[in-house]
Amino acid sequence: MVTRPELLMLDEPAAGLNPKETDELDHLIVELRNQHKVSVLLIEHDMKLVMGISDRIYVVNQGTPLAQGTPAEIRNNPDVIRAYLGE
What we know:
- The chain is an alpha+beta fold.
- The chain has two domains: about 1-55, Rossmann fold (3-Layer(aba) Sandwich), CATH 3.40.50.300; about 55-85, no CATH class.
- It is about 45% helix and about 25% strand.
- It contains four helices and four strands, in the order βαβαββαα.
- A two-stranded parallel ribbon has the order 1-2. The protein has a two-stranded antiparallel sheet with strand order 3-4.
- A hairpin with a 2-residue loop joins strand 3 and strand 4 (about 65-70).
- The termini are far apart.
- The relative contact order is 0.14.
- The model has no long low-confidence stretch (mean pLDDT about 95).
- It is an enzyme of class 3 (hydrolase).
C-alpha cells in the first residue's frame, strides 16, 4: 500500500483459512478498500466472503463468462445456480 495502488489483485486469499481468519480477512479487505480508495479484484471460491464484500461480481464457469451483477443478482441468477448448485 506504500505505492498507493489503484488496484489490489487478490488470488484465493482465503485458501487454507479457518472461518475466524476468513472473517478477519473480510474486514481487512474492506478496510483497505475504504481507507485507501483502492479497487479490489478478488478471485475467490469462498462465496460467503465474495458475497459479503463485493459491489459487483463476475462469474466464470470453465473459463467462460457466465454472469455479472450485484451479489443479489448473482445469488438469484438461474445460470449461476445451475452451474454451481445443480438443478
